[in-house]
Amino acid sequence: MTGKDRMVADLKAQHEANRREYEDKQRKARIDAKEPIVDPALFTHLENNRRAAPPQQQQPQPQAPSVPRKAPAAPRTAPQAQSARPAHKKAPRREGAPISPEAARAAAARRAAEEERRKREKAEKEKKKEEKKKSVLAIRHAVMGYFGISICILLIICGIAASIFLLGLTSHDEAETLPDKLIYYAGKDKTSLPYSSVYIGGKYFVNMTDIAARAGLTMSGDSESMVFSAPPNEKAIFTVGAGHALVNGVSVNMGAPCFLRDGSLWVSADFADRYISGVSVTLSDDKTTLTVEIGEACSFLLKNEAPLDTPTVDDLPPSVVILPSDTPRYEFTNDLSSYYKYMDPADRDAFLLLINPSRPFDATYEPPDLTSVLNVKKGKNYTMSLYAEKALEALFVEMYAAGYTDVVVTMAYRSYEAQEKQFNTYVYNERYYYRTNFEATGKWFSDAAYKALGESYIKEKYISKGKTTLTKEDAERVVRSYSAAPGTGDHQTGFSCDMHNLSSTSVKFEKEEAYAWLLENAHKFGFIQRYPKDKEKITGMSFEPYHWRFVGQYHAAVMRENGLCLEEYVALLEKE
Prior knowledge:
Layout: H1 3-32, H2 40-52, H3 79-82, H4 101-176, E1 181-186, E2 189-194, H5 195-198, E3 199-200, E4 203-207, H6 208-215, E5 218-221, E6 225-230, E7 234-239, E8 244-247, E9 250-253, E10 259-261, E11 264-268, H7 269-275, E12 277-283, E13 289-299, H8 340-343, E14 370-372, E15 383-385, H9 386-401, E16 408-411, H10 416-431, H11 433-441, H12 447-453, H13 455-461, H14 472-480, E17 496-500, H15 513-521, E18 527-529, H16 536-539, E19 547-550, H17 553-562, H18 566-575
Helix pairs in contact: 10-14, 12-13, 12-14
C-alpha cells in the first residue's frame, strides 16, 4: 500500500470514528429524552445487504430473550425446499420503530444544515474577533498618534520657553553691558556720572534742582517736599518718594518716584521732557549721553493739553444752587440711626477724592481703613473704606426692604496692581479680537474699537491693508474708553463699588427696576452714580449704571440737585 493510500485510509477511518461518535451522542440524547431510537445508517446498511445478497441457507439460531416471532413461509421450488426447515430467527431489534429512507435522508439533511449553521456561527465569531482586533489596533494607533502630537506640542512649548529664557538672558546680558559712565549734559555743562546713578529701575532721571536753577525758578521746601515756582502763578509740588507731582493743581503721574541726592531732587526724564515747557531731554542712540536742554522761558504748563476734559467754571451750569449747610434728613423704613455717622461723616470733604486720567495716583496709594464688604456675590471677598462700607450696609437694608433682594456687590476696592492686570488683559483682547470673535461676529475689531477709533480710521489703517491686529497704542485708546488705566481708576479710592442683579456686569442693568430704585434713593445714603450716561465726555468713561461712589449725604444731595458729576463738582469747589 502506497503512502497516499494509507493516508486516504487513515482519513476514512478518522471520518468513520467521528461519525460513530456523533451518532452515539445523538442516540444517547434521544434515550435521555425518551425518544424512539433511530439508527438510519444501520437501517440503510442492513437493507442494502438484504437486497444485494443471494439467498443462503439459514441456520437455526438461539432464541432471543424476547418473544419469538414466526418466520414467513419459504417458497417451495425444490424438493429440498418442501421439507421442513427450521424457521429463520432475526436478530433482536433495538427498541423503537423502523425509519423510512425518506426520514433518514431528512435527518441527514438536518444534520448537514446544523453543521452548516455551526460553520456560519464559527465564521461570524472569527469575523467579530478580527473586527475587535482591528478596533483595538485602531484605538492603539490613535492613542499613539495623540500621544505623539502631545509630545510635539510639549516640545514646541519647551522650545518657546527656552527661547524666551534665552532672550531674557540675552537682555540681561545686554543690560549688564551698559557702560559704567554716562555723559550728562545740562545746558552746555558736561558731567560724567556713574550710569547706575542716572539709570534706575529701567528709567532715566534728571536733576530737577539744577533745571530750576538754570531756568530761574524759585525753589523751596525740605527733605519731604519740594516746591518749584515760576511767574506769574506756575507751581509744581513734589513729594519725595512719590510717583506723582501736583502741577498747577493737577496731579501728574511721573512714571517713577522722585528722590533726593546730595540735596538735589531727581525726577524721571520722561516727566521733565513731557510736562515742563522749555525743557527737552534726549538720549543718544548708543545710550551713553543724556542731554538736558533748557530754554529761556521754562514753566510748568502741560505741553500736550490741559487736563483731560476737566471742566472750568464757565463750563458749569449757570444756575448752580448750593444747598444749605445742614444735611437733609430722610425718612427710612428701618431704624438706621446707628449708620447716620457714616452716611453723613463729620469730615464732609474727606470723601471727595478724585482719581481720573488727569489726576492719576501711583501704586503706593491705598485707603488706610479698608474693611470687608457685607453684601457681596457668593464666594467673593471685597473691601471698602470703613465709612463707605457702613453707608453701603444701610443702603442694602433699605433696598432689600423694598424687595430688591437679588442685588449684590460684584467689585469694590481694586489696587493699582489689580487694575494694571485687568487693563493689560483688556488691551490684549482688543488687539487680538479676531482670534476668538471673528467666527461669531464676522468682525476683525470690536464695537468698542469702532466707537473709540472711528470706522474710517480702522478701514484706512487696518482693513485696507489686510491687518487684523491693533497696535498697542490704539488698543489702549479703545480700552481707556471703558476701563481706567492703572492709577486712574475710581475703585482705587476705596469709596466705590459695582452692584447689580445680573449674571455678569453689564450696562443692561439700566433696564432693571433695582437700578431705578438706586437712582431715586442712593443719594440718601451718600452715594452718587460715578459715570452717568450724559457725562461721558467729562468723565472720560462710558456709561456705567452699576458703578456707585460714596461722597457723603451732603455732597451727594448737592450733586443730585444740580445734575453734576464728580469732575464738575470738584472743579466748582476748587474755583471757589
